[in-house]
Amino acid sequence: MSTSKVSAARLAPAKGGRRSLSLPVVLLLLAAALALVSLVRLISGADDVTSVGQVAGALELAVPIGLAGLGGLWAERAGVVNIGLEGMMILGTWFGAWAGFQWGPWVGVLFGIIGGALGGLLHAVMTVTFGVNHIVSGVAINILAAGVTRYLSNFTFADKPGGSSKQSPRVDEIDKITIPGLSDWLQDLQQHHWFFVSDLAGIIGGLVTGLSLLTVVALLLIPVTWWVLWRTAFGLRLRSCGESPVAAETLGVNVYKYKYIAVVISGGLAGLGGAFLSIVATSIYQEGQTGGRGYIGLAAMIFGNWMPGGMALGAGLFGFTDSLKLRGGAENVHAMLLLLGILVAIAAVWQLYRKKYVSAVIAAVCSGVLFTWYALTDQVPSQFVDAAPYVTTLLVLALSAQRLRMPKADGIPYRKGEGK
């Protein structure tokens, strides 16, 4: 066996005991989930839950969360915890809007990436070079980004037509694409409200109707990230820095260099998510418009077990939950009570099958409460509708915590020369 293959084998992180799901199994699970949602839609009468507009809105809300989660994945796979994603997104929103209204939206996208990457570079300097605690550094960047952008807005946007100290002038939109014929046919099919078929048509229709070109770029970044990190020598070395930097160093890997690259890319992806918010989602920069999406992106990454595909599913879940309040509002969220009750009931049966009786009883009681709440009410309070995305974040993290496996050296301080 060649020396390079031996080195690659030694660098490869140890595999856990859990088997990865094959593509047919994943598709079967997704079909089962869609069938369950379709059943809930028919029972509750909330026909807008899987409409083309609902899915398109969910996708638009999921993209910035997904880009932040993808940024967190790059950093943490190299062993650096990036709590500063929120601040890097803030930098992306400001720099994206600042450059966008002057030189066009695509230049704004580029500057948004640069702004986030600068935040990532600062995080790398503090954590990798100076050994500052990763959480402390990330929180500092979040505070610094909010303060810097507020200061810059005072003398950059305030005197511009349509701008103020808290918002930018309007930015030109990025072109959107719709597949003619197919989009109309799918919308027609969705409006029949048939079981499963109309729901599938609504989901596909949302993906081919009014799709921003930047959304297409963001979606392509998911398989690109998977290929780079899991199918190239570069990705293998980067991931080895998050699993065992000492072992990587003994095999000649420049651990500092790979950590720097990962965290700067992480910041750039978060900045791209911020630019998406200010250029595509709203066409304007507004103070505080990230709304905690950087933190939700981290939650999506954790839910996805530090894998791009799982992270994308988590971002889609949070985006969908957030979009419920925009179309149908309380009615859609009320229907989700029934869906949640069924899911918790399934969890109770599963726990009973595994002979975890205490967990089964708790899950059964929670399911009963949800069914009772759904049966005795016609809608949920507006405050609960607004809180739904954050409640979902907490529930998902609580339910997925037992199956997670983070990189072994994630967040652990590393000093060059420890492997000698």
Task: Describe the structure in your own words.
There is one protein chain. The chain is an all-alpha fold. 71% of the residues lie in helices and 1% in strands. The chain is built from 17 helices and two strands. Strands 1-2 form a two-stranded antiparallel ribbon. α3 packs antiparallel against α12, α3 packs across α13 and α4 crosses α13. The longest helix is centred in the middle third of the chain and has 27 residues. The radius of gyration is 23 Å and the shape is globular. The N terminus is likely disordered.
Topology diagram in text:
Elements lengths: L2 H9 L11 H22 L7 H26 L7 H19 L1 H25 L4 H23 L19 E2 L4 H9 L6 H12 L2 E2 H19 L1 H11 L1 H6 L4 H27 L11 H11 L4 H16 L6 H24 L3 H20 L5 H19 L20
Helix pairs in contact: 2-15, 3-8, 3-9, 3-12, 3-13, 3-14, 4-5, 4-6, 4-12, 4-13, 5-6, 5-12, 7-8, 9-10, 13-14, 13-17, 14-17, 15-16
Concise description?
With 420 residues, this protein is mainly alpha-helical.
List keywords for this structure.
420 residues; mainly alpha; two-stranded antiparallel sheet; disordered N terminus
The backbone outline, from C-alpha atoms, is globular
Helix-strand string: HHHHHHEHHEHHHHHHHHH
Main-sheet strand order equals 1-2
Beginning-to-end CA distance, first to last residue = 25 Å
- Unreliable sequence segments: 1-10, 12-17
Q: How much helix is in the residues? A: over 70%
User: Into which percentage range does the β-strand content fall?
Assistant: under 5%
Biggest beta sheet summary: 2 strands, antiparallel
Give the tally of β-strands: 2
Structural class: mainly alpha
Radius of gyration: 23 Å
Helix count?
17
